[in-house]
Structures are given as structure tokens and as C-alpha cells.
Amino acid sequence: MSLLKNLIVKNKFILLYLIFGGLTTLINISAFALLYKAGVPNVAANVIAWILAVVFAFFTNKIFVFQNKTNSVKSFFVQLGKFFMARIATGILDVAAMYILVDVIELNAFICKVICSGTVIVLNFFISKFMVFKKNAK
Fold first, then answer.
1. Distance (Å, whole) CA 15 – CA 61
2. Other C-beta atoms lying within 10 Å of the C-beta of residue 105
């Protein structure tokens, strides 16, 4: 097996998370742009785009990344709720960190955004893996 193929097979899980994360970001930005250009106010367009992106992320993470199945409608909605709550929490963390680092401490906004975004991506991965889509012990 070639080195590249071996690397892809061993890291398939992470690669899928990154691919669908990239698509989630694309959906968020595209939806925002379309809504905003259509005359939807900034905040409303951003909230709608975020909701669409989180719904997309939930289903792609559930089906393709974590390959998770639920036994009932109730467990599905509990899982969906956990996913949304986790994304809201990391979103608040991102906004708070950016405020402190950029507005209070006055560090470079772009560098801080890259660091905060990377941190949120890692947090979302671990929250999804160990709290939202965790494999139940049989």
C-alpha cells in the first residue's frame, strides 16, 4: 500500500470531518451572501445561514463522519439538541475570545480569528465524538 493511501485510510475519520467542515463553511458563507444580497438584514441573514450550516453539519457528521444511528425519534432529537447546544456554546466561546483578544487586549484580529476558529473546530470535533455521537457501550 502506498504511503499516501495508507495515510488516507488511517486518517479517513479526520479527513471526512475536515471535508464536511469545509462544506459547512461554504454553505454558511453562501447562504449568508444570497440572503444578504436579497435584502435580508445582516443579523437575520447570519442567523439563518448559521442554522442551515449547523443542520447540514449535524446530518453529515451523523451519517458520514461518525456513522451514528439512533433507535428512536426521541433519541434523534436529543442528539440534535446536544449538537445545537454544543455549537451555540463554542460559538459564544469564539465571540467572547475574539472580543477579549481583539477589543480588550488589542491583538491582531486576523491571527486571533485563525487561532479561535482552529480551537472551535477542535472543540466541536471532540464534543461531537465524545458527547453527541458517542458510541453506546453494549
1. 12
2. 9
